[in-house]
Amino acid sequence: MKKWSEKWRRIATGVLDVPQDLTMEMPRITMIGQLQMYIENHRGVLWFSNQELRLLLTKGQLLIRGKNLIIRMILQEEVLVEGTIHQVVFLDE
């Protein structure tokens, strides 16, 4: 069943010209240099410190490492992080 829904989403993306981040439940990440990162479509904060942020995604996790990190804004599926970002890693399920 999971494979069918993923296949349907890919077809819908191509035919309807819908952005992949919406149909495939992927995160949309916008960075401004090393200073700011805006993440949409996350599923929650797993861990936060001034050096690391770990977000739950639909498929896996997103790990952000840096210095003097702060969460400037957080909503149900959006988060804005500021500080000096050194590393962004996608972790498998």
TrEMBL record:
Superkingdom of the source species: Bacteria
InterPro entries recorded: Spore_YabP/YqfC, Spore_YqfC, YabP_sf
Coiled coil, from the record: none
NCBIfam families per the UniProt record, alphabetical: spore_yqfC
Protein name: Sporulation protein YqfC
Organism: Aneurinibacillus thermoaerophilus
